[in-house]
Design the sequence.
């Protein structure tokens, strides 16, 4: 059930899921694990329970005809609630919407009718033997946190990308970097300037001092210099 | 602790993602974690069962209450495994007594029911702080990801329950049917009699087994939440990249120094090489890029080309797929007699069925009426729904209505409305002719145009020229009128544009012809 490969062979553990499009573009998806998904399901369950309760109360007034309508309502809410929301609302049921999740195909494309129906019909396999025990175990054991329905339908529950807020950089005169940097290194410098507010002053100095020697400045001025380079990297805004 | 040795990708994550990373971390070391947990808890549970055989409820409560103690072992393993030094089972158990000491009482009393237990444990166990410093540290760390840790505990409680019930249900499903038939539910209710103690202990055991799966994950999730909080607070990811950058740059400097020394040592050689190669700009190849070259080495150009084309034939450069579809066969087989008979029987049966249905024709009628009503209702609704659209655009959809444009009141700057003309035109012309020949001829021409407009209903527009007016008269098939109009127009043009007076004899000729043409018609 669990696999534990030798440590040296495997790359650092990460929660990202890479998809390469035919055009050679790497999409970075972030599969969502058991806990946010369980909460999203709980929200959906509560909403459905509420709707069903209200529906029963109202339809009970109609007698036998109402009973028929109530069973239709139960059918719709049990089998079609998730499918309709997922297909028509960009892979988001209300619970997933609240938890910032959405369902997509394995290759990053929006979920369609076939996949959504499959994953929601197979929910009844996940429920076995009781209270989603199989689904929970499958979700914990899969590297992309898929339950059995997801594996069968080829779908993935991911975190939605929220639009990033405009970064607030520390004030400094823009400087040109004295050496060439890879994208990752440029991001780290920008991150240092952006996250200055979250770091304590001694920690900032400590971090900046690491780069004092390559920058050829005294350790005390390194922070200001890095902020300047970050401002230069950001360009005019 | 060296960040470069970390076996997880370090970057700031959301609390949910940090917990996901914990699941992955527990999964990677699952064997060790589950084995150590089982070795620690199963004997303890057995001991508790023996001691409290008569009180299974108390046994499981005590076991449950002591959970924070067992959690220190997986945390020890994870914290070492994170930086590559995964301990063996033996090492982990050797370290256990030392792990249990700090904060033992707090863990079992006021911190036992804390929802952020998993998140606080790394601070208590790994940081080794004491007293006020520890409380301050907990407060600082708990500012952001503590909410996530509470949710983790809440979901964890429910997961434990779900898995517990699931496992119990699985066991129940595996019971042979005969036992189930003989089952006396009443005896279960009578549990107080002590007959069913073993069943309660079995159910407790199931809970203990469930914890073997869930607790390492719970501890790992709390640990990664803690790591994530420290990554955000101390910018571990930035430190990691800065260190690599520093190593690269200073390393490059050393390499350059080394390379410079080598260069000086080999200077004569390199100068000779430069002379041998001569011009640095290669001459254009006379045979083109397809010619064979590099023939004096193992991999010549031809072999390279073959390898390249071989590579290009494979994915991802070449994408081949075979598609399987159903389609009609080329020739339809002759239907055999049996087939025909079967078909006729089937049709007869269908007909009989249809007769049977005729009794239900009333029902069908109702349905038909309902469907028609639905269709009509849909159409009515559509009309109502798009009524504004229809009102706006339907008018344009009709054929353009031919409405005769209002007759112009002026042509070539001349008044042509009947009101502006005298009643008896020829006599007015004759009066004017001698003194004002221009006005007289103008009046005549105006009268002609007015007649064409209002009596002949010619569609004259102010944009027409005199010649166009003449050509419009042609279709009227009135020879006299055409000739008269042509003559009058010619004289009028001569006078108006050429300033040549008409001959005097023209006066009577035009007027008499006018009377002949229009005289019998009473002038309005």
Sequence:
């Amino acid at each position: 059930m669990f696999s534990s490969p030798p440590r040296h062979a495997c790359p650092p553990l990460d929660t990202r899921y890479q998809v390469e499009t035919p055009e050679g573009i790497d999409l970075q998806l972030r599969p969502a694990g058991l806990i946010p998904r369980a909460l999203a399901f709980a929200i959906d369950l509560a909403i459905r329970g509420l709707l069903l309760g209200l529906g029963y109360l109202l339809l009970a007034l109609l007698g036998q005809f109402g009973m028929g309508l109530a069973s239709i309502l139960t059918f719709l809410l049990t089998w079609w609630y998730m499918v309709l929301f997922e297909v028509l609302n960009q892979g988001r049921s209300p619970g997933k919407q609240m938890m910032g999740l959405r369902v997509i195909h394995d290759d990053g494309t929006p979920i369609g009718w076939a996949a959504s129906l499959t994953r929601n019909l197979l929910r009844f396999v996940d429920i076995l033997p009781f209270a989603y025990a199989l689904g929970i175990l499958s979700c914990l054991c899969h590297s992309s946190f898929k339950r059995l329905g997801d594996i069968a339908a080829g779908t993935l529950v991911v975190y939605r990308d929220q639009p990033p807020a405009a970064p607030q950089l520390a004030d400094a005169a823009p400087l040109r970097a004295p050496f060439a940097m890879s994208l990752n290194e440029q991001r780290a410098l920008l991150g240092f300037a952006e996250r200055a507010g979250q770091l304590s002053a001694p920690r900032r100095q400590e971090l900046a001092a690491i780069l004092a020697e390559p920058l050829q400045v005294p350790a005390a001025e390194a922070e200001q210099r890095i902020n300047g380079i970050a401002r230069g990297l950001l360009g005019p805004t | 602790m060296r960040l470069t040795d970390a076996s997880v990708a370090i970057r700031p994550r959301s609390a949910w993602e940090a917990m996901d990373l914990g699941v992955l971390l527990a999964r990677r070391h699952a064997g060790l974690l589950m084995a150590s947990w089982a070795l620690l808890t199963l004997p303890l549970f057995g001991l508790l069962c023996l001691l409290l055989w008569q009180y299974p409820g108390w046994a499981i409560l005590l076991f449950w209450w002591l959970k924070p103690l067992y959690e220190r072992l997986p945390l020890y393993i994870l914290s070492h495994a994170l930086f590559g030094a995964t301990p063996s089972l033996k090492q982990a158990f050797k370290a256990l007594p030392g792990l249990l000491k700090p904060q033992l009482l707090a863990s079992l009393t006021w911190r036992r029911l804390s929802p952020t237990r998993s998140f606080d444990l790394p601070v208590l166990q790994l940081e080794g702080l004491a007293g006020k410093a520890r409380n301050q540290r907990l407060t600082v760390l708990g500012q952001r990801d503590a909410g996530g840790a509470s949710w983790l505990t809440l979901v964890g409680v429910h997961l434990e329950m779900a898995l517990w019930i699931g496992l119990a249900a699985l066991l129940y499903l595996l019971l042979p049917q005969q036992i189930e038939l003989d089952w006396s539910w009443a005896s279960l209710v009578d549990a107080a009699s002590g007959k069913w103690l073993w069943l309660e202990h079995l159910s407790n055991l199931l809970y203990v087994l469930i914890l073997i799966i869930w607790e390492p994950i719970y501890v790992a999730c709390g640990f990664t939440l803690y790591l994530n909080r420290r990554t955000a607070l101390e910018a571990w990811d930035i430190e990691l990249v800065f260190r690599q950058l520093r190593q690269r740059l200073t390393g490059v400097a050393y390499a350059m120094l080394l390379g410079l020394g080598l260069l000086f040592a080999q200077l004569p050689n390199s100068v000779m090489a430069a002379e041998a190669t001569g011009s640095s700009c290669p001459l254009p190849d006379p045979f083109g890029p397809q010619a064979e070259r590099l023939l004096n080495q193992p991999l010549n150009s031809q072999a390279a080309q073959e390898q390249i084309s071989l590579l290009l034939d494979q994915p991802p450069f070449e994408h081949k797929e075979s598609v399987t579809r159903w389609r009609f066969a080329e020739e339809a087989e002759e239907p055999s007699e049996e087939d025909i008979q079967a078909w006729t029987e089937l049709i007869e049966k269908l007909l009989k069925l249809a007769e049977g249905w005729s009794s239900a024709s009333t029902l069908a009628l109702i349905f038909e009426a309902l469907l028609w009503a639905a269709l009509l209702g849909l159409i009515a609704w559509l009309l109502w729904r798009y009524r504004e659209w229809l009102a706006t655009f339907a008018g344009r959809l009709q054929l353009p209505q031919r409405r005769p444009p209002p007759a112009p009141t002026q042509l070539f700057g001349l008044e042509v409305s009947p009101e502006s003309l005298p009643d008896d035109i020829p006599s007015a012309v004759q009066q004017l002719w001698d003194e004002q020949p221009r006005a007289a001829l103008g009046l005549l021409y105006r009268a002609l145009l007015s007649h064409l407009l209002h009596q002949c209903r010619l569609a004259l527009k102010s944009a027409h020229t005199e010649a166009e007016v003449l050509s419009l008269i042609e279709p009227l098939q009135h020879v006299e009128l055409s000739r008269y109009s042509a003559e009058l127009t010619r004289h009028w043009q001569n006078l108006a544009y050429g300033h040549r007076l008409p001959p005097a004899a023209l006066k009577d000729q035009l007027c008499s012809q006018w009377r002949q043409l229009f005289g019998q018609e009473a002038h309005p």
